[in-house]
Specification:
This protein is α+β, with helices and mostly antiparallel strands and 202 residues long. Helices cover 66% and strands 15% of the residues. The chain is built from four helices and six strands, in the order H-H-H-E-E-E-E-E-E-H. A hairpin with a 2-residue loop joins strand 4 and strand 5. The protein is elongated, with a radius of gyration of 45 Å.
Length: 202
């Protein structure tokens, strides 16, 4: 019994030396928790910054792709525009030849030439080329160039009476303006002449 009491006393002494009070253990846990929170907040901030960088890079890359597409389309459009503009005189010559040869050439020869002309026109149409409608329309300097002004009572003042050279649009933009003859009102011309003479007399 004495030995058991002695051993129990020694165990109590050892336990008292190694165990920490409950308050100290809770304080250490709080410190660890604060450290973990700080580390977590730092990682979340780092993750947010990386995410913002990724979004900026993605936006920059998308802008780069858009600019590249636009530049490529512009280069292709400019190259096509130059080629199509050079084809227009050939179309003009075909139209003149067809008009002149309508009565002189055999029907089968004329039909063959007309088919080639239509194929050429179809290619232009597929590329977005379309003729400018001008005859009977009011003169519009945005789409037309005035070749001549003629007195007529058939058309109102400023109306296009005839085409000297057909104009064309490419994707809605002027590829070649129409060269036209514009109606001039005879009465208006006489009035202008009278006003001019009156001013000279004064």
């Amino acid at each position: 019994c004495e030995e058991e009491a002695k051993m129990t006393g020694e165990e109590t002494k050892v336990t008292g030396e190694t165990e920490c009070p409950p308050e100290d253990s809770e304080a250490k846990d709080d410190v660890k928790e604060e450290i973990l929170k700080e580390k977590l907040a730092a990682k979340e901030k780092e993750l947010g910054e990386l995410n913002q960088r990724f979004l900026r890079l993605a936006a920059d890359f998308e802008n780069y792709r858009r600019r590249t597409r636009e530049e490529t389309a512009e280069i292709r459009r400019t190259a096509n525009e130059r080629l199509l503009r050079e084809l227009l005189p050939i179309v003009d010559n075909y139209e003149r030849a067809l008009e002149a040869a309508k009565k002189d050439l055999p029907e089968n020869v004329y039909t063959g030439i007309e088919m080639i002309y239509r194929q050429l026109c179809n290619i232009l149409t597929q590329e977005g080329v379309e003729p400018i409608e001008s005859v009977g329309k009011p003169f519009d300097p945005q789409y037309m160039d005035a070749f001549q002004r003629v007195e007529t009572s058939e058309y109102p003042e400023g109306t296009v009476t005839a085409e000297v050279q057909k104009g064309y649009l490419l994707q809605g933009k002027v590829l070649r303006p129409a060269l036209v003859i514009v109606a001039k009102n005879k009465e208006a011309e006489n009035e202008n002449s009278c006003c001019k003479e009156a001013n000279e007399d004064e």
